[in-house]
Amino acid sequence: MDKEQRQADFEYCKRIIKKHSKSFYYAFSQLPSEKAHAVYAIYAFCRTADECADGNHSSIKKVQLLKQLKVELDLFNDQEELDEPLWRALRHVFNRYEMDIGPFYDQLTGQSMDLTFTAPNTMKELEQYSYYVAGSVGLMLLPVIATKSSTDLHSSAVSLGVAMQLTNILRDIGEDYHEKRRIYLPKDELSHFQYSQSDLHKGLINDEFINLWEKLAARAESLYSEFLLNIELFDADSRIPVYQSAHIYKGILDAVRNNGYQCLSKRNYVTKEKMTQINAAAYSILDLREGDALTVEK
Prior knowledge:
Elements: H1 3-20, H2 22-28, H3 33-54, H4 59-77, H5 85-96, H6 102-115, H7 123-145, H8 154-171, H9 173-180, H10 187-192, H11 197-202, H12 207-228, H13 239-258, H14 272-297
Helix pairs in contact: 1-3, 1-5, 2-13, 3-4, 3-5, 3-6, 3-7, 4-6, 6-7, 7-8, 8-12, 8-13, 12-13, 13-14
């Protein structure tokens, strides 16, 4: 593949991430160019899978699209990929980094779970689902942003992905219920906190809802903390974008709190001002840590 074609393929992937995830693009666009391109290609695959299962298609069409993507991934795995931008870009990523095809198949499993959605009974079931749709993404990215110690960071990458998915769920409770007729909140937690589907239908934000929401938020925040403990194991050129992406997503939880837990009829997001603060903190904190490490080494 010539350089011009490769550049065009990665630009195709870049347009996808810029359109669908400004926060991810904001963080990972600060990587060195080759790594940023790899992240864009991986994101483009995940977005393609998500649109198969969540796009404006009939149930039958969604199943067909997801099966077709599985066929295309099989071809890629057999070194016979389609001559298309996404697959050409991913081939370059697999040639450049020590990638594992397993998480790509796990992502498709997660999207299949959405096609046959059943509300989780327990937090364990919710976190298992969250691994397939989001923890798998962390594992896809790991060989790109932790080239020397990716195997040591396996559980950290999964923790970040699960934390982000739990955050998505807590942000989108109303949207998921009203637009998709889905309740991702575990049934046993709903029962424990005595918050019913009828309450959700009415958009009721009471103490029971807040306590339930905070129970899941605490779990997400503990997973973010677990992940951030190992930030120094990532490549030096990747630590700041990784730190930013974790804190930007974590900031969504505070945005919901600051809006009085109104996530049943309102979309919550991290402001540009907050992103700028996170950006400054990343440079300050990580530079300080690395400075301390150098002092110890001396």
